[in-house]
Each structure stands twice: as C-alpha cells, then as structure tokens.
Amino acid sequence: MGTTASSPRKKVNRIGLELQPYRGRKTTLCAGCGHNAISERIIDAFFEMGIEPSRVIKLSGIGCSSKSPAYFLGGAHGFNGVHGRMPSIGTGAILANRKMIAIGMSGDGDTGAIGIGQFVHLMRRNLPIIYIIEDNGCYGLTKGQFSPTADLGSKRKTGVVNDLPPVDTCALAIELGASFVARSFSGDKKQLTAVLKAALSHRGTAMVDVISPCVTFNDHVGSTKSYAYARDHDEPLGEINFVPYFEEIDIDYEPGSTQVVKMHDGSQLLLKKLEADYDPTDRLEALRVLHETSRRDEFATGVIYVEPDKIDFIEVLNLVEEPLATLPLERVRPAKAAFDEIMEGHR
Amino acid sequence: MLRSAVAAEDAAAKSPAPQVVNDFNIQVATVNGSGSQAANLVLFRSIFQMGIPVSGKNLFPSNIAGLPTWYTIRASKDGYVARKREIDVLVAMNADTARDDVLGLEPGAAVVYDDPMELNALRDDLFFYPVPFDKLIADVCSDAKLRRLVRNVIYDGVLAKLLNISRDQIEMALTKQLGRKVKALALNQAALKSGYDYADEHLTKQDPFVLEPMNQTSGKILIDGNAAAALGAMMAGVTVVAWYPITPSSSLCETLIDYMGKYRIDKETGKATFAVVQAEDEIAAIGMTLGAGWAGARAMTSTSGPGISLMAEFTGLGYYAEVPAVIFDVQRVGPSTGLPTRTAQGDVLSTAVLSHGDTKHLLLLPSSAGECYSMSLKAFDLAERFQTPVFVLSDLDLGMNSWMSEPFEYPTEPLDRGKLLDAETLERLGEWGRYKDVDGDGIAYRSLPGDGMPAYFCRGSGHDSEAHYSERPEDYEENLKRLTTKFDTARDAVPGPVIEREGEGLVGVLAYGSSHWAVLESCDQLNQEAGLALTYCRLRAFPFNGDLTTFIDRCERVYVVEQNRDAQMLSLMRMELTAERIAKLRSVLYFGGLPIDARSITDEILAREGHELAPPNSA
Ligand SMILES: Cc1ncc(C[n+]2csc(CCOP(=O)(O)OP(=O)(O)O)c2C)c(N)n1
Ligand code: SF4
Ligand SMILES: [Mg+2]
After folding, report:
1. What is the A109 CA–ligand 1 centroid distance (Å)?
2. In this structure, which of A74, A284, A336, B20 has its CB flanked by the most CB atoms within 10 Å?
C-alpha cells in the first residue's frame, strides 16, 4: 500500500514525497483559528492522496479564510483574487488548464454575501473544483461583523443579536445542482480529512462548508459558531471512511449498516449509517436532513449529497484533452483557406 | 387620382435640379422590429455592388419592437463614409415620425412614403413619391403574418427604379442578404419586383439623385467592426472567452462563437480548442478572463460602458498582479436607459485609469473595421508581452455598422506569448522572482500552472519581487516604479500615432477611433471652403509616445476632436504632456449619440479659426 512508511522517521506518501512539500508558509492567522486546522487537514488529505503539489492551483477571495492558501501546499500555484470572486478566477483558470487540480478557499462572507452570485453560478456549472467555505458566521478580517451564515439569534461579543435568518450554503448548493456537498467541523480531524479526500476524488464541484470558529470575534457564549456550540450541536450523519482507488478495502462492515458510494475515480466512500434511512445520493433526502437538523438547532455533518457521475463543465464545453493554455499555434489559428473563406463571405 | 410627384412637379418647375450622381444620403425611417434592417442592407449592398463607395448607419432605439428607427445610407463618389447630416432621399415608413422627418429635410430632397400618410401636403419644395405599400403587399403575399416582414422590401424596388439601380443588381443583393433562407427568397423577390414595377409604371422621376456604376469597391469586403474584432481574436488564437450580453458589444462574442464553432473544432476529436462562457455578469466575465490569463490562456471579454464599471476592481487586480487580459469595450452613451444604443467615445478616461490605487492601462483605438481586426490580433500579443489588461476601445458606430474595407491579411507572425519562464531562462537567471525586473524593461518572467517551472503566489498590491506577501513601503514603491517602467516600455510597442493628412499651415487636428472618417472629410471641407489645410494626426493607442509630442510641437494649435462632452482624450493628454503643449490643444466635441459628422467639425473649426486667421477667401 502506497502510504506505508519507508522508515519510521520520514513518512513518505505513495508518490514518494514527505509531508514538507505539502506545507505552506507560516500562518499569520490567530492562534486557534479554525481556518488553521482546516489548512492542516488539507495538507493531510493531499499528502495521503499522493497528489503532486505542483499539479494544484489554489484560489481564494478576500478574508482571513482567503489568506489560508498561503499556508498549505507551498509548491502549488496560487491566486488570491478579490472579495467574493474566487469562483470566476477558478473558472477561467480551470478552463485554461483542465489538467490542474483546483482548490478554492472562501469564507462565509466571501461566499454568502458579496460572492453569492458567483457561488450560485459555479454550483450550476459543476466546475471541477473543491470549494471550501471556512464558515465562522462572521467577517473575521473586518473585525467580527455578522455574516450571512450567522444564525438567527446568535450574539456578537458586544451583545448585538443577529435578527436575520442564515443562508445555508449546503442546502443552496444542493438546490442549485451541486454534485458533491458536505459539511464538517474544523475540530473533527477524522471526518474532515475523509470528506476532503472524498472531495478530491470527485469529478465536478465538491462544495465543503466547514464550521471554523473565529477565536477572536465569535467564540463566546451566545455565539452559535463557537467551538463549544459546534461541539454540542454537530450532528454527524454517520461515520465516514474513505478508501482511495489505489487502496484495498480493509474495513469490516455489516451489510446494510453501511452505504458504499463509488466515486468517479473508483475510490469508495463508506458511510456508516446513523440516521436509519439516510441516502446521500438522494437530493430530496439530503435537503430534508438539512432542514430537520437545523430546525433542531443542530447542524448535520458529513457528505450530505453526492452525485458521482454528473458531467462536469469541462465535458459540457466539450474541451479538447490538452490544456487550452498551451495549445500550439497551428491548433488555435485556423488555416489560410478558412480565413479566405471568411473573407469571401464578406464580399 | 394619380398623385405621383404632384408637388414635385411644382418644385421641379421652380428649380430644375441638375443631376446629383453618386453623392447623396438616403434615410429610411421605420419602426423597429418590422424587418426593415434586411431591406436596408439590400439597398446598401446593391450600391456597394455597383462599385460606389457607400456607408450605412443604423440609428436604432433601445427597444425590440415598435419604436422609431432610422437607417442612413450614404453613397459618396469621393469615398466619404462618415455620417452626413443632410438627408437627400427619405423613405418615410413610420407614421409617428414622418411629419418631423419631412419637415426636417432641406429643400429639394426626395420623399418616398406610404401613400395614406399624405405627406405631400406638408411641403411644396420636395419631391414626393407616394407608394401604396399595403395594396402592393396584399397582391404579393396572401399570408397576413408574412406581409409585415416583406413589406419593406417594396421600397428597395421603388428606390432601385428611382435611383437607377438595375434589377439585376438589386436582386443579387437580395439573394446575398437572404443567404440560406431560400424559402423566403421567392416572396422577397416578388415584393421587390412589385415595388420596382410600381415605380416604373406610376412614378415619374423628378429629383436629381441618381446612381451610376463606378469601380471603387471591387475587391473590398463589407464587415462590421465587431465581426472584424471577433475574427482578429480567433486568428490570435484566443482560447477562453467570457462575456455578458450588452449592446453594442454582444455581436462581437456572438460572431466569435459562430466562427469558433466552425473553425476551431479539432478535426480528429471533434472537440473544442476554446471555451466560451456566458458569465453571470461582467464581474465574473473579467474574473474568468483573468483566471484564464493567469493560467496561460489567451483570454478575452467584451463589453460596453456599464460592464466596464463592473470590471473596475478586477482590472486593477490584473494590473497589479500582472495578468494578461484583452477587454473589448464597444462604447455607447452613458448609464441605464435612454441612449444605450447610441454611440460615444465616453470610456476613454474610465478605461485608461480603471480601478483604484495607481493604475493605468494600455488602450488600443481602432478607427476602421480593418483596425478592429488588426488591433484585436495585436491586443493579445500586447497583453501577454506586458502581462497586463489591454483595452480595445471600439464604439457602436464602428462595431455594429457595416463598413467597406480592404480584405484583411492573414496573420503571418507567430504569437508573442511574452516572457514565459523556461528551464533555459531559469538557468540563465540563476534565481527567479516573479516580479523581478531582470531585463530593465519592467517586465518580469512568469511561470504558468502546469509548466513544470517554479510556482508563485499571485496576489494584488502587496507583494515583493518574489511574489511573497509584503506590506513594506519599500517593496510597494519599488513595484510601482517597475510598473511605470513597464508602462514606458509599452509606449513604443503600441501602435503609434499616424499623420493622416499633411497640411500647410500651423494648425493641426487630432482624432481617434470612429471620428476618423468625419475628420478626413472635414479636412477636405476646410480646405475647399476656407483654404485651411490642416495636418491631421490620428491617435491609435495609449500610452502616447514621442510621435504625438513631435506632432504637437509642429503645430501652433491643435483641434482635438472627440465624441464626448468632457474632452476625455485631451484630459488624458493633460496627465502626460507638458503645460506648453497642453496650451496648444483645443477641443472640438460632439456628444449627441449619433456618429459624428464632418459638418459639425468643420463649422466649429471655421468659427474658431475665423478669429485667428485671415477671413476665408472662398465664396
Ligand atoms: C469589495 C470589497 N469590499 C469589502 C472588503 C472588505 N472585506 C475584507 S474581508 C471581508 C469579509 C470577510 O469575511 P469572510 O469571507 O467570512 O472571511 P473571514 O475573515 O471570516 O475568514 C470584507 C468585508 C473587500 N476586501 N473588498
Ligand atoms: S480574526 Fe478570526 S477568522 Fe481571522 S484569523 Fe483571527 S480567529 Fe481566524
Ligand atoms: Mg467568515
């Protein structure tokens, strides 16, 4: 098996890389910020999946969350865009080079407010990208204002109460036709890593909303996005095990107790059911679970919805196999005869 | 009662007009959505086929159906293609505007009109030709629904007869215009014939306007600027196109989509060598363009003023992060409703410095369909060479109207993909910094995702020469200075100003974009009417270079002609030129939303020069 360590001290992954190239620069986010934990899980997931960092493009908008691409996969190509517009940059970059693996980092403000339009349309297009929302219910970088994912009744440190209902990015994504929708918690190491690995094996958009507490502005009593609140109200849909296509299944499970979802690349997602008849490939079911848990003031986590074989935007556009960016001249400039034909048509 | 040319006979009796050959202006006044555009293009094309220089301008409302629209066709033996204000032949099909249309004519004009409107009662100094359109169309077409669509072709027939276009010519133009719509052809031909025959039998030619074959158009093509720009983009090898529909730029991307679907599908696999995305708005369109440009694609978007505003933030990012992008701006009049379908040169300033912080951008200023093509090609090279957004500033007049042009040249130059890092360069440089000026021209080497070269983290204003995050004042200043160096390098790489006319005195005229044609004609008018031979310099790009200052230095004063209220190009020059040179510049501005005409320029310059020069010695 590829992840077997070659020596007990220097762990290498299946492509022979150590963990170091998967790390980024030193974080400048607050100590304890949920976003840092997510960066760590991204490092783990890419390492364990054995993905060459130079094959990755990291994209982001603006916010504390959008700074995080600097803190993982130092050898990857990065583009830190403008507030709320990561989806469009990602769309252009992926269309230019379909061979790259894209991960987009956003915040709940970046996505839920200024960027909601681009979020909506990216979900519709099923662009191949992992879209992560580091969801802290506030605007960290501008010092704690409520964001559109703040729950009704949640309190700021100043005591101000949020009096508008939240946007549920997962429900919205499912409604819009997203093909992989998950929610997790930055504090749930095992689940988040499994979800990220599953996202990496998905074709199309993998939208992952991660509850990621802001220790500086939104981690107090009365906040519904604090660590304490998240731990108490996290409602995992089941235990997730991810078996990548390059590994054998060595997990025992009782038939009927576990649902196996086959991902597009051949990997398998084993979901041990807690909710008796929950089926993450059923869109209505997924929406039902989201609505029911939120009505109970809980949030469901895990892979909420997955449609492994939905065609992605690259296929919709019927693009050639090679990256468009580097097609040679003769493939992008029509021949003289074609040009003459066009001229002739204008006579 | 046969009323043909009743009043005209009177008029003719008063002043027998000498023939006016190949030098007049036709205006067709219709209601939009009535299928008149096809009929107008048939007329336009038939004049072109006769070898007579011709221009056509569609003056249309922002509406799908039911509002007045005018189409003017100017035949000019001297080759003038700017809009001409005076109408010589009016085709009055719109009852709502007919009265004003007729009252606005100069004496001696001809009017073809829909009989029941009885326009001949309005004036007695015009030549009137009533045509019973409804009766004629009823005979041609039994299907009432189709009648509306072919009714206008009748005036093609009438005008062909009156203006001396042969039956063959006009039929050929009709066939060409309908293209593959074979079914419609027979019906249209019948309508054409009925108009021609009616004029033949019932109308007596009284007005002086006639067409005679010339040989001034052979070998030429007819094309609108948007199609030309689209062709340039395809030949430049564009691979990612993101756009959001807006008049007058939509047809640029729509034509491009047609071309690409036909000529850019990989023969072996049947797959596309391009991606076109109709984005959710212009912010997304420019974002996709920049994302693609960053990843190494030749990427573009196309829009008009409102879209430019939305692209502001991203364009600044493109400038600071140094990402290539080509942005076509087919300019139109100001925001929201009102005159979105009218032309202007109103985005010169906003595009030149679009965004916040210290930003300035390369602008290309095409004047013709030919330049819409060649500058479109050029824009992609410049964008990659200078790793920055490049604007191509066309306008509605240039973009949406059909222009005569020499056929374009097939590009023989390879693509200039700019400074891309490769193994050899990396070795030569020893160490690479994404924003390090190693050649002294302000342009650094860039790597692309997937090219095997070192990666970098692309971001906005705050980075050092290694592309690392930095808020140090020294890093920011150094970077801004390098960007200035880069901008200066671009001065001589963009198309420079050209002297279009060598004058005799010390008075110059400066113009750019679609104003060019009116300025050329105005130069002739000024010469003929006042013996004023101006030197005419045409700007083709921003930033300016030494050729502009040389020109200004040669002149005592320079009239800067623009189609905007606030002298935007002059203001831009104010930012770059010395006070002494600025003091020589005077504005001639037109901003009515219609394409600028020569007479407006001539009159203004004459008035201004009247104080400074000896009185004109012309009659
Ligand atoms: C156009 C624009 N408007 C406003 C801002 C200011 N701004 C920076 S980050 C931010 C909110 C970020 O919130 P979120 O996306 O939730 O990220 P977080 O910091 O919470 O991780 C805002 C409003 C900006 N950078 N750009
Ligand atoms: S302000 Fe909040 S979101 Fe930002 S880095 Fe600190 S803890 Fe994280
Ligand atoms: Mg936030």
Report:
1. 6
2. A74
* Nearest CA-CA partner of B561 in B494, B513, B609, B505: B513
Q: Does the complex come out with an ipTM higher than 0.85?
A: yes
Whole-number pLDDT of residue B15: 53
Chain A CB contacts of B291 below 8 Å: 59, 79, 81, 88-96
Output the residue whose Cα is nearest ligand 2's atom 2. A214
CATH 3.40.920.10 in chain B: give the residue spans: 2-210
- Checking if the pLDDT of B184 tops 90, the result is no
- DSSP H/E element including B511: strand B507-512
CA atoms within 13 A on the CB side of B560: 23
- Which helix H or strand E contains A79, and what residues bound it? strand A77-80
List the B275-278 sheet strands across, edge first.
B275-278, B240-243, B299-303, B325-331, B389-395, B362-364, B541-542
DSSP assigned state of B304: -
CATH code for the structural domain at A20-239+277-316: 3.40.50.970
Name the fold adopted by B2-210: Pyruvate-ferredoxin Oxidoreductase; domain 3 (3.40.920)
Ligand 1, pocket-test mutation among A71, A85, A105, A110, most atoms within 8 A of CB: A110
And the tokens for A183?
Answer: 């929610």
Of A92, A97, A334, the CB nearest to B242: A92
What would the two tokens of residue A205 be? Answer: 């958009």
Q: What is the β-pairing status of strands B535-539 and B498-501?
A: antiparallel
Å between B287 CA and nearest CA of chain A: 5
Are B25 and B599 in contact by the 8 Å Cβ rule? The answer is no
Chain B residues with CB-CB distance to A91 below 8 A: 242, 277, 284, 287-288, 291
For position B578, what pLDDT does the model report?
A: 96
Is residue B307 scored above 90 in pLDDT?
yes
Whether the per-residue pLDDT at B417 is higher than 80: the answer is yes
3-state secondary structure of B106: coil
Query: Which residues of chain B are within 8 Å of residue A346 when distances are taken between CB atoms?
Result: 221-223, 227, 407
What DSSP designation does B218 have? T
Tokens found for residue B81? 């293609």
Instruction: Specify whether the CB–CB gap between A320 and B272 falls below 8 A.
Output: yes
Helix (H, G, I), strand (E, B) or coil at B507: strand
Say how many C-beta atoms besides its own lie within 10 A of residue A344's C-beta.
Answer: 10
DSSP conformation letters of B72-87: EEEEETT---SB-SS-
Cite the residue boundaries of each domain of chain B with CATH code 3.40.50.970.
Answer: 223-405
In CATH terms, the superfamily for domain B223-405 is: Thiamin diphosphate (ThDP)-binding fold, Pyr/PP domains (3.40.50.970)
> Which among A67, A320, A327 is the top mutation candidate for probing chain B, defined by the most B β-carbons within 10 Å of its own β-carbon?
A320
Nearest to A319 among B271, B293, B295 (CB): B271
Instruction: Give the whole-angstrom CA distance, residue A12 versus residue B504.
Output: 80
For the CA of A111, the nearest atom of ligand 1: 15
Q: Where is average pLDDT lowest: A45-59, A127-141, B49-63, B498-512?
A: B49-63
Q: Please report which ligand is nearest the Cα atom of A34.
A: 2
The alpha helices in B82-220, defined as continuous H runs, are 95-103, 133-140, 144-150, 153-163, 167-178, 182-202
> What DSSP element (H or E) covers B405?
strand B402-405
Which tokens sit at B391? Answer: 């604007």
Residues A68-113 have pLDDT tens digits of: 999 999 999 999 999 999 999 999 999 999 999 999 999 999 999 9
Tokens 């007695």 sit on residue: B124
- What pLDDT, on the 0 to 100 scale, is given for residue B23? 97
Q: What's the whole-number mean pLDDT along residues A325-345?
A: 97
Domain B498-608: assigned CATH number: 3.40.50.920
Q: How far apart are CA B470 and CA B27, in angstroms?
A: 62
Kindly report the protein residue whose alpha carbon is nearest to atom 8 of ligand 2.
A33
